[in-house]
Specification:
The protein has two domains: 36 residues; 172 residues, Rossmann fold (3-Layer(aba) Sandwich), CATH 3.40.50.1240. The protein contains eight helices and six strands. Helix 3 crosses helix 4. The chain is α/β, with parallel strands linked by helices and 218 residues long. The protein has a six-stranded mixed sheet with strand order 3-2-4-1-5-6, sandwiched between helices.
């Protein structure tokens, strides 16, 4: 072998190796995005068509809405509602009453409501709805079959609102292979129930974004 060929071979070998490394890295990067779990949509920032679909599904009674309780008093140093340390903060009352108006605007004539029996969820549901709400243990137990239990509670043609906890919302995302989300207090997550075996999260609304949804802009 000539000196020239030997020299060129020495150059090409590391170049080929470098190219292979770059190609492998690119493939891994692409696979990450292809295989990444989808993130639930913030409906206050979504296209009008998606927001409009949520409102249509509500009119048809096809939704389950999971509502996280309002601000937990034991996590902050402020006044607690009714002096209940395990309840919600007194300052979150305004948020709850605002949400009551928004749910009333949606219309509750064909909606069933249930709540976790824990103090913070019971106080939240009392603010959100004028009528007493029945308590269900599965709404705080947050087991692997949480979504199945929720779907079993839904009556066809009627919406279902469930006041629950962040760990139960984690179960919803895990069941539907969605990315984990650090949901805020008072968030409402909208699940379209196409059939007992098929559901789809349409998105979520933070407690201070309801006006954007009920008066969407194209």
């Amino acid at each position: 072998m000539s000196v020239r060929k030997l020299f060129l071979g020495c150059i090409k070998t590391p170049v080929k190796r470098f190219s292979a490394i770059v190609a492998a890295a690119g493939l891994a990067f692409s696979a990450h995005y292809i295989l990444s779990e989808p993130v639930p949509v913030d409906l206050s920032k979504s296209p009008f068509a998606l927001t409009g679909r949520m409102l249509q599904e509500w009119e048809e009674g096809d939704l389950i809405v999971f509502v996280r309780h309002l601000e937990r008093c034991s996590r902050v140093d402020v006044a607690c509602l009714e002096d209940e340390a395990n309840g919600i903060t007194e300052r979150s009352t305004v948020t709850g009453l605002d949400m009551r108006e928004h749910f009333a605007t949606l219309g509750l004539h064909k909606t069933d409501m249930y709540s976790s029996p824990l103090t913070r969820t019971a106080q939240t549901s009392a603010l959100l709805f004028a009528e007493p709400v029945t308590h269900q243990d599965f709404l705080y137990q947050c087991e692997d079959d949480f979504v199945q239990n929720a779907v079993a509670k839904k009556t066809p043609g009627r919406n279902l609102v469930l006041v629950t906890h962040s760990s139960c919302l984690d179960e919803v995302n895990e069941h539907l292979a969605l990315a984990e989300v650090d949901y805020n207090y008072g968030v409402a997550v909208f699940l379209n129930v196409e059939s007992p075996a098929r559901q789809q999260v349409l998105g979520f609304i933070d407690s201070d974004d309801w006006a954007k949804i009920l008066r969407p802009q194209s």
